[in-house]
Design a protein that fits this description.
This protein has one domain. The chain is of the alpha+beta class.
């Protein structure tokens, strides 16, 4: 284990934190800051603070701007960043994709959680910007969630090459990454397009 990895592993707040209300005998209600686990990052709660790198945020903000520009004339389109998605599949917990694009939305809202059952639509595109610490989760657990939610068909996943965002590289052998190890993956939601 490298010293950088050890330092990160020793930081209980490396993934982020949430505030939990506690009862205190003397002071009444208090809020305690507790560290997030990898499972908390996979299934965030509204109000969680998830730690991201600058590269991760730069890529997400760029993609958010690009996708919003591409769908700006479609009033039924919604492009969301770090907004929880509650799936319309019983037993499937809400999770938080990096970028989600929806079409067919009836009314724009300031969502903290986008509920697919209430809105009546599922994502047309999900983008995960992966980092070395969470890559196994982003490309393992999250893909399983998206497949269970029937958002995408197996095999419809591609990696955008760093420096060439928007050019899909679907090759399994492509290992082009940013110097920080960040990669961008897009899931095309082909099962529910009209």
């Amino acid at each position: 284990m490298t010293s950088a990895t050890q330092a990160s592993a020793d930081d209980p707040f490396r993934y982020g934190w949430r505030y939990v209300q506690r009862e205190h005998a003397v002071n009444g209600e208090l809020y305690e800051q507790i560290p997030l686990t990898l499972e908390d990052v996979l299934y965030p709660e509204v109000g969680d603070f998830v730690v991201h790198t600058k590269a991760h945020e730069d890529i997400c903000n760029y993609l958010l701007d690009v996708f919003n520009e591409q769908v700006c004339e479609d009033a039924s389109a919604a492009v969301l960043h770090d907004v929880r998605v509650a799936w319309d599949v019983p037993g499937l917990r809400p999770n938080g994709p990096d970028i989600t694009v929806f079409f067919g939305v009836q009314q724009q809202q300031n969502w903290a959680t986008f509920d697919c059952a209430i809105e009546g639509v599922r994502p047309a595109l999900i983008v995960e910007v992966t980092s070395p610490d969470t890559r196994h989760q982003d490309l393992g657990d999250k893909l399983e969630i998206y497949e269970e939610a029937e958002v995408w068909e197996s095999g419809k996943v591609g990696k955008w090459e760093s420096g060439k965002v928007g050019k899909c590289c679907a090759s399994d052998t492509c290992r082009d990454t940013l110097s920080c190890g960040t990669q961008v993956w897009g899931l095309l939601g082909t099962k529910h397009q009209t």
